[in-house]
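Work package 3, deliverable 3.1, input record:
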Amino acid sequence: MTYLGRILFLSILLVVFVKQSETVCGYESCPETKANMVNIHLVPHSHNDVGWLKTVDQTYYGYKNKIHHAGVQYILDSVVSQLLQDPNRRFIQVETAFFAKWWNVQSETMKKLVTKLVNEGRFEFTGGAWSMNDEADVNYQGVIDQFLNETFGSCGRPRVGWQIDTFGHSREQAAIFAHMGYDGQFFSRMDHNDKDTRMNDLTMEMIWDASESMSGVSLFSGMLYNFYSDTPGFCFDILCTDEPIIDGDSEENNVKQRVDDFISYAKNVSEVYITNHIMVPMGGDFQYEDAKVNYKNMDKLIKYINERQASGSKYNIFYSTPSCYLNSLHQSLESWPNKTQDFFPYAHEKNSFWTGFFTSRPTQKRFERDGNHMLQIAKQLSVLANLTSEQHNEDLDYLRQVMGVMQHHDAITGTEKQAVLDDYDRMMYEAIAGASNNARDALRILTKMPNGEFESCLRLNISECAFTKDAKSLPDFNDLPQSVHLLTLEFFSENEILIRFEHFLDKSEGRVISFNIRDIFDSLGDLAIRETSLDGNMPLSDKKRFKFHARESGTKPSSVEYSTAQHKPLEAVKSDEASLFAVTLYPMQIRTFIIKTE
Amino acid sequence: MSSVKNLAILLALFASYIVQSEAVCGYELIKLVIDNNTGRLKTVEMNGVSENIDQTFGMYKTARSCHYIFRQDADLELVEDAFDFTVYEGESVKEVHQHVNEWISQVIRIYEGVNRVEFEWLVGPVPIDDELGKEIVTIFKSGISSGGVFYTDSNGREMMKREKDKREDFSPDLSEQPGSGNYYPVTSRMALQDSSKRMVLLNDRSQGGASLEDGRLEMMLHRRHIFADGSGAAEAINEQQFGKGLIARGKLFLYLNAVEDGATASERVAEKEIHLPFWKFFSKSSNIQSDVTKTLSDFNDLPQSVHLLTLEPYSKDEILLRLENFLDQTEGKVVSFSIRQIFDDLGGLEIRETTLDGNLPLSDMKRLKFHHDDSGPSHSVPEYFISLHKPLAADKSQDASEFSVTLKPMQIRTFIIKKE
């Protein structure tokens, strides 16, 4: 089964579901806001690196939690069940690499439930690429590729880029989002001096003119107030130790204090943004594994903050998404400053420019280019040769997915741990090998050479290629002495070759010659060689012929005589020295050999 | 007697020294001059331009860099010793092999008929026995008066102007990191120029690049560190292979060009050739029947500045096709062509245009449009962007003129072709 197939299947489901329930998604499903208040868009999210300190699979399955606690499968299980309990709750899903893994193993019932959540705007794909790609080290081709097939159906189509963790931001990324029809993007890393300046000037949000060559390519871009993690003091996740909201009849009741603190924070945020809307992300790295803890406390936060409106509070808080926040900004009819350059280099504090990762792990950065190269080749050839088998689709999809993973901001950047890099390399190598088979099969069709090898060599940069090295080149019989005739070259058995050499000059015309047949042996078979009688039927060493006594040749022998080979029969194996492969031919002599091949 | 003889020998040596203070290696398109004393590149002549370019290697020793951050502790240390070098001259390729030190070497290579100089660097194992991490860089120093400005590409597309010590909207704090804070990502090209000459480096993977002095381009090639940043990966970036520090190998490509309108188009073409060269497949036999290629689409008929960015299976009976005009507004112009032949060759029944990701029919695209501060009075109703051109939509029965595609500089258009 391929992800492509499954994702297309999802889009069909989505269509069916829309028809059944007539629900709305997108901007029409956004929560209501209040014109005369500060509207706080509370945005639940989990930031799930597609490999960083742990490999992709370790991160998904929650393995090696001693390195850090991360189990994305449980996050999705938990979030979905919490969303189903209350139609007001929202969650944004960012990294499709993980979502696809999870989706693949869900029951039909669960798939329908998730589809319903998507169609009602409660579970919203944001960013939506295979991974949250880096913006410094990536080539546009790799970025564009990882957005295809990962987004599906009209309700599943992301509207907003969510580049909250990438280490600086490129103008081309903004242009790519614009060309993909995205309405805006949010991020949270920029030079600390830049951020301070923008907070002062109320320019945290801007219109990025993303192309000098083309007009109309602009993208609304917003900088988050406090990184992408929770409001300080309000991390309700099991990974945190902040105070929960205690609202019972308890000595520990802290509702007043907690609401005061949150409103005070919201006031600070609202002072550096120009509309009466603010966005407060609620989440962080690998949060929401036990999502009821998060939602239960956010429910209370919302309840008690909004209760204060009755006594004159001007703060209105609700579950929302980045796209709904963006929609509110759009509706505000405000004007925004523009931006024309980019956000490199990034410095999170004094003395700390993130410029090392531009070069970190140089060999991995190169290998990623090879992966992209093979992906393009395999895709083009698949089209031209019309490859459609399940295996071909699976292999091509796997390389697509692995290249999506490689765009991740801890993959191509080289900022992952060594063990994670090793795993990326393994995946890429396997994926390239699979796609190479597609390329080979396509070339066999296109060239009408069903047995063509069409091997790819990944180590050409060091002039190494197993195929050309091990290939049996044709033996060069021209190296034989001039008077030697290749009398016979034929198959003797399935894995034996018979070869005869003849000295075709007689003793008045030529003389004894010696030559070495090691090269011929190597190129023909190379396991073993033995010499036989002329007919090839008897090992020469076994040859024992009756010898008859000629009258002129002296005294009669006292016993029966035999003649054996007059020279030592050649017999050798691959590991023997070349000198054992010397052949001497007298004028007119013919010698016969059998070479055993593999 | 003997002293006179010695003097003669000395004179002879001196004479040969004068004659051979440089080694010259070149073809019609390019001439390289190597300084015999230093073993380093001295002069490059190509595209009708000659410039003294001194290329060398250097390192920043530091105890505080990590996976993410390059923190400079001390001045750049250049390799001071002369390089041992040998020149190999062939009919189609010439190479200068440079032995820089025990762990850096390089082959400078030019090919007959190829208008760029290739630098194949080999760096590692980077020594850390002094217990300091190292950032290894190569430097190309020219006399070009670049006035503190250089250019780097943005993800392989448009070029970004970088001004030393400056940012668009704020004043950076470079007090402690004047070098690192002037590094930028280079994913395919970096360049500097004055009014007449231009020096360009293309690379084969992404790297950090900088121009810390006028006329000088610097590219970081390799890193090895022993400092584990507590906040990050919690281990040092210290790659090993075969029990030693990792050896990395790669290529940079140098271009020297005159500053003229559109001259950088050739750099773009080279970028594409480097990024996606011919993939080599190996087979024993090469008896490909001559008729087999006839049935394939001939993408060579596309205009020269058009790149077949993507051609891939989209669904069982659909193909995704992306076409890119890869020249920018200074290098190229609007191109128009018909894709009817490609459509037919691919067995097309219908074609439609989508957004760049392929996920949304372009005719359905309606993006939120936000109002610029400086673009006149604010609007009274929310505004939207729709496609700036009429999305292409056609089927097999329609006239070839319906298959016309116009691409502005840098524009990419995405199509889905339904086939038989």
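Residues 9 and 485 of chain A are 69 Å apart (CA to CA).
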